[in-house]
Input
Amino acid sequence: MTHITEAVRMQCFNAVESQFTVKWARVILLRWMDLTVKAHVLLVEDENRLRAALTRRLREEGCVVDSMTNADAAFEKITTEPFDIIILGVRLPGGNVLDLCRDIRARGIKTPILLLTAQSTTEEKVMALKLGADAYINKPFEVGELLARTEALLRRAPPSQVCQFGSVRVDLGATVVTRDGVPVRLSAQEVRLLHYLATHSGVLLSREQILREVWGYGMDAMTRTLDVHIASLRQKLEIDPKRPNLIRTVRRLGYRFETKPPA
Output
């Protein structure tokens, strides 16, 4: 049996450990790139230098970043546009960040919220988490820590299932529909129909196909149920129900759900 000296054994161990480290460093890096590339971030922070620095760094990491300074303006944007993560400074003009967190969750929006806290008490942090914030980071902080926390929140968040069409926002994951930021009340069957149409966006769907998948009817079913529900959705969602742009009729063929306005 060949005897291996301690020095040789350590060299082998170090080589394996080095390869392992490189391999997993690469895996972690690729995972981070996968999570952040094209992630849509809303950054709301009133400190100009910090906001500019974070915006620049997040964009360098591949994120699409919208930055703002005002709580009221941020709430309007959050309720009309889909984001993958929201980063909020605690002290913001135009409103209290605790109220902002509560109002965001009250609208059924489940986007992860990361707070940038400064001189906040433990009670304030606990209250923020109870009202809907997902995590916080204390100022001053290293940018690397912010990126790591952002990665963790993006990793835990479910895939985005938000469709945006003008003033209409359809969150399939939360089954929440808003128009101009105001919730739209839909029946259970309307939700199922809208979910099916939206998850097949851009696809021409025959009447028979929709009736089968949403209602469970057979191919020879003769019913006006689909027409009634389509008309109801148009009344609630379309700007002009008589000239629909969201749920379009393809004559003699079926319907197509469009999330892009006509050219």
About this structure: The first helix runs from residue 6 to 36. Confidence is low (pLDDT under 50) at residues 1-37. Residues 37-156 form a domain with the Rossmann fold fold (CATH 3.40.50.2300).
